[in-house]
Design brief:
The chain is of the alpha+beta class. It contains ten helices and 14 strands. The chain folds into two domains: 2-167, no CATH class; 177-201 and 235-388.
Length: 388
């Protein structure tokens, strides 16, 4: 299994100067290649691939104006072109929007493959750096594992992080249990399970909203290009980083607990990208990070030998009675409890939905039955992702 550990590190002045130049060169090459590919398409409807941009990079290095590209390692520059190719592949497949130009204030990242760094005696030596990086090893890399790539990242707040990727053969499946749960994701209750448990939504953005608002106000008053504006920008970035860190920490603890306690986990395949178009709920949905929850559950189930199932997003989990199967016509968001008109059972909206999600997921895993609503015209099989 491939894993990646992220650590904070503190570069020396010489290392920071080289790393900042490297990030700047990666950003420049990426933006120039994106410009060339965009211009070629608009002028002659011609697609330029990675091999052509790689040849362009060789030519750019020979230009006197871009001679500084030779002062940094060539590996991160080539990796940047590969990332651009991946961005275009995702765009052509309809998964993402058109690639954007990179900006300096966003920090940036540089990826070093195995030929551009050394891992020796538990320390990382980057290309053209004589001294090892001063990494805060919050957890050790498993014994016998060799890093395959390392990624250096500078955050807008000024923090430096290194992500070390390696193949970990020490991961073992967790003991088998007979417990299966369905999970309904929400805003008031972040997670509601089919056994009746609810996990409240910490609402991290709301917690820091007033502090963030004051910092943004302070930033807007500063003169553009001044040092005071840069200080204010970093303060805003640090608050955003604090929100991100607290949210990530909470989600990892929650998903790890769910994977450890349950053998089968069933969730809905939510179209979060479409749901955030609702301007009244966009901020709350983004803060809840439903997509990140399902992503973490998927790969952790794959790591630890659990079964992860996603059922179709059109399955009427909230409108269906989990006791008799009756489906009501409408179920507005403001209705949190309702009585079934057929059997009279009183339902909590979220718990009822999670029970239906579990039942649908088990049906899909056992016999491959369709869980799309009957009135749907589509005959395409249910979108299910099963990882064991």
């Amino acid at each position: 299994m491939e894993k990646a550990y992220s650590y904070r590190f503190y570069p020396t002045p010489e290392q920071e100067s080289l790393l900042r130049r490297t990030l700047g060169c990666v950003r420049l090459v990426y933006n120039k290649a994106l410009h060339e590919r965009t211009q070629a398409w608009y002028e002659s409807q011609r697609r330029i691939g990675y091999s052509q941009t790689s040849s362009m990079l060789t030519a750019w290095k020979k230009e006197s104006e871009l001679d500084f590209l030779n002062e940094v390692s060539c590996v991160p520059l080539q990796q940047g072109l590969r990332h651009l190719q991946t961005a275009f592949s995702n765009f052509w497949a309809g998964r993402t929007k058109y690639p954007n130009f990179k900006k300096k204030h966003q920090g940036g990242s540089a990826e070093f493959s195995k030929s551009a760094f050394k891992y020796r005696n538990g320390q990382i030596y980057l290309a053209k750096c004589k001294e090892p990086l001063d990494i805060r090893w919050s957890r050790p890399i498993p014994e016998g594992c060799e890093p395959s790539t390392v990624t250096i990242r500078l955050h807008p707040s000024g923090r430096w992080h290194i992500s070390i990727r390696f193949d970990d053969p020490t991961i073992k499946p967790l003991p088998v249990t007979d417990k299966a749960i369905g999970i309904d994701l929400g805003i008031n209750s972040l997670v509601t399970t089919s056994d009746g448990n609810k996990v409240s939504n910490p609402k991290h953005l709301k917690k820091y909203y007033r502090k963030l608002r004051r910092a943004h106000k302070n930033l807007s008053r500063k003169e553009k290009g001044s040092k005071n504006r840069e200080k204010a920008r970093r303060k805003v970035a640090r608050i955003h980083a604090q929100i991100t860190d607290t949210r990530k920490d909470h989600l990892h603890k929650l998903t790890t607990q769910l994977v450890r306690e349950n053998q089968t986990i069933v969730v809905e395949d939510l179209a979060v990208k479409n749901m955030v178009k609702n301007r009244k709920l966009a901020q709350a949905i983004s803060d809840a990070s439903w997509g990140e929850i399902t992503r973490q559950l998927a790969y952790k189930c794959r790591w630890y030998g659990r079964t992860y199932i996603e059922i179709d997003r059109w399955f009427p989990s909230s409108k269906r009675c989990s006791n008799c199967g009756h489906i009501v016509q409408k179920m507005p968001l403001n209705i949190r409890e309702w009585d079934c008109p057929e059997c009279g059972t009183c339902h909590d909206r979220d718990i009822n939905a999670s029970k239906n999600i579990l039942a649908a997921g088990l049906a899909v895993s056992v016999c491959g039955a369709s869980v799309r609503p009957e009135q749907s015209k589509s005959v395409k099989p249910t979108a299910m992702k099963l990882q064991t």
